[in-house]
């Protein structure tokens, strides 16, 4: 039986699509985010597709809760062999709609402060560090695993008005690259997918199911660390 996949930051868009794609290949799915009701709804959708999926509510900024959720998932679903990490602020899911960046907590370079960076760091980097720490020992013991990090354009290119997230995501990307180099010899793949288009159903490259299939193929091929969608580095 394939190992379990943990989707951290699971939502009805990309998270659901990643769970569906890996679940269709036989992987049991652990859904992790802070909204228990939302997770149960996604689990029901996946169950209707024939996917084994369970909800493990946890806030990614709460290290103990996240660690406990992933360990429980491993106990109940089997070894977590794939970690998909993609928490992010919620953007309007309408193609062409420009979100209010300030309302979503983003700051320009001149307005960025330690206080504005800290929530982004805790969600985007701190949670990733704790999630990997929870699943990596079993991956190393099995000499097999995949760590998949999904980010936005600011991980690679600066965007005006989003400097605080850029600090966090660029750091996450750098660390993920280090993991890729450190763990490749142990049979563990680390990949980074940076998405520069709205994630909207039916939008071509930004369709959640298209992105999820791209992730699945990258995790199978394991031949490149980084792929970008919608922009060139």
Strand content: 15-25%
Mean pLDDT: 94
Number of strands: 7
**Through-space gap between termini:** 38 Å
The geometry reads as globular
SSE order and pairing:
Layout: E1 4-8, H1 14-24, E2 29-32, H2 36-48, E3 53-55, H3 63-77, E4 80-85, H4 114-142, E5 145-152, H5 163-183, E6 188-195, H6 208-221, E7 226-229
Question: Features of this protein?
Answer:
7 strands; 233 residues
Give your account of this protein's structure.
This protein is an alpha/beta fold and 233 residues long. The protein is built from 6 helices and 7 strands. It has helices spanning 14-24, 36-48, 63-77, 114-142, 163-183, 208-221, and strands at residues 4-8, 29-32, 53-55, 80-85, 145-152, 188-195, 226-229. A 7-stranded parallel β-sheet has the order 3-2-1-4-5-6-7, sandwiched between helices. Helix 6 links the parallel strand 6 (188-195) and strand 7. Helix 4 (114-142) runs parallel beside helix 5 (163-183). The N and C termini lie far apart (38 Å). The model has no long low-confidence stretch (mean pLDDT 94).
Q: In a nutshell, what does this entry contain?
A:
The protein is an alpha/beta fold.
């Amino acid at each position: 039986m394939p190992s379990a996949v943990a989707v951290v930051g699971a939502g009805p868009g990309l998270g659901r699509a990643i769970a569906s794609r890996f679940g269709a290949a036989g992987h049991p799915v652990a859904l992790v985010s802070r909204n228990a009701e939302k997770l149960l709804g996604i689990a029901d959708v996946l169950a209707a597709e024939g996917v084994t999926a369970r909800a493990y509510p946890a806030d990614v900024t709460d290290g103990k809760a996240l660690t406990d959720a992933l360990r429980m998932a491993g106990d109940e679903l089997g070894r977590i062999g794939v970690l998909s990490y993609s928490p992010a602020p919620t953007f309007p899911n309408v193609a062409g709609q420009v979100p209010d960046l300030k309302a979503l907590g983003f700051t320009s370079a001149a307005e960025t402060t330690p206080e504005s960076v800290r929530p982004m760091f805790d969600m985007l980097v701190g949670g990733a560090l704790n999630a990997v720490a929870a699943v990596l020992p079993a991956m190393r013991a099995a000499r097999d695993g995949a760590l998949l990090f999904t980010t936005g354009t600011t991980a690679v290119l600066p965007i005006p008005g989003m400097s605080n997230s850029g600090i966090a995501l660029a750091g996450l990307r750098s660390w993920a690259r280090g993991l890729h180099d450190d763990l490749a010899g142990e049979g563990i793949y680390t990949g980074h997918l940076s998405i520069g288009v709205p994630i909207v159903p039916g939008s071509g490259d930004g369709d959640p199911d298209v992105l999820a299939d791209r992730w699945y193929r990258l995790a199978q091929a394991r031949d490149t660390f980084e792929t970008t969608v919608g922009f060139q580095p």
